[in-house]
Design a protein that fits this description.
Chain lengths: 200, 200
DNA sequence: GCAATTACCTAAAAGCCTTAGGCAAGCGGA
DNA sequence: TCCGCTTGCCTAAGGCTTTTAGGTAATTGC
């Protein structure tokens, strides 16, 4: 009987499509086997286990996102670059919600270090070249931008902002305006002051 | 034989503890039954299905978070209030990672409207009373704050900032400084300008 | 103390994960 | 061309989780 021609790459790709269709949580070895019209056990020649499969999809999504980010950043600087990268994340999450969810998978440290995740941090840092930030403020700003991008996109995707005025597109552009203004005018550290501190 | 005394409330509470111990994704009807030393089917008298159980835990977490937020905000205003609420989210996520993950569960709209989620939005809006923002900027700011809180906490919890200098506590206080500065100096909308727009 | 309720049980079917071992397809070399 | 080896996909099987149906015993209220 003819072989299906399974590969780790093909599994990752099909798994990513499946994730976008039914949600990342519903991606299962069984479902993927059905999609290839193959018995479940056959996948275990290519994939260690269910978690390995999800890791593959995560890595694929991180690569795609990083590629899109790099393309969007090329030739841009300052606020233009900021908006471009921000939109890459948001657009990707809307086009490929399953893949975006996959990209949030917690990778073990070595896998994370070898993944495209590092390119993401580099791209965010590259944006800050258009603003006058020195260390350690640059790192603080990288983390802030990452938090806003991820937080906004995931809340919006989860329906957190749903159906209330003003529309989320308007808020999104205003948030980018605000981040741009903030980066151009990054505040000096406040004194110890009365601000409540975390107890941990 | 003696009865276990199961209740929706007790199930939610035990489920929350279980989530903190093994992770929200590993919370299962079976595991919870084991914890009560009871057969699995018995839980189905109290809980519709697995998703219903997770919803219960989510609602519990949202309540707890809102209660902590309200307590932290009492008697505070301005940056002090901002830092207090921010720390509530972060501290809660660190103390109760499983519950925090549960709070991110996507609720169906009516459940969401009846949940403590609305109190969260109100609290964030209350903070903005200490800053001079009018609609629609106030809503934009509410969404931005929500994004930063959620995004930062979830990235930090997922290890996104792990083991790199400067430490995350320093970044966190600087991020709050930055948000405070931004809210005190909220920028006017930029013109149409050259900024890249989302294609969607 | 008895009836009615309800809490928990047994039983069973279905789906997913994972491992072990078998057959055959397709490749390399003679 | 034919043979053997590798490897891709298979069958079989055990274990865990979900969910439903229907039974028995504990508790509540009169």
């Amino acid at each position: 009987m003819a072989r299906a021609g399974l590969t780790r790459e093909r599994l990752a790709r099909a798994g990513a499509e499946l994730a976008d269709e039914v949600g990342f949580d519903e991606v299962t070895v069984s479902a993927l086997a059905r999609r290839f019209d193959v018995k479940v056990a056959s996948l275990y020649s290519h994939v260690k286990n269910s978690h390995d499969l999800k890791t593959l999809i995560c890595l694929l999504a991180l690569e795609e996102l990083a590629d899109r980010g790099a393309a969007a950043l090329a030739g841009r600087a300052g606020k233009d670059a900021l908006a471009a990268l921000a939109n890459v994340y948001r657009d990707y999450a809307r086009e490929h919600p399953g893949r975006y969810a996959a990209a949030q998978l917690r990778l073990d440290p070595e896998a994370a270090a070898a993944s495209a995740g590092v390119r993401h941090a580099q791209m965010t840092r590259a944006i800050l070249r258009g603003y006058n930030l020195t260390e350690p403020d640059q790192t603080h700003a990288v983390r802030l931008l990452g938090s806003v991008f991820h937080g906004y996109v995931s809340l919006e995707l989860g329906g957190g902002f749903s159906h209330s005025a003003p529309d989320t597109q308007t808020t999104w552009t205003r948030v980018i305006d605000a981040l741009d203004a903030l980066l151009r005018n990054w505040p000096a550290p406040s004194g110890p002051g009365p601000a409540h501190r975390s107890t941990s």
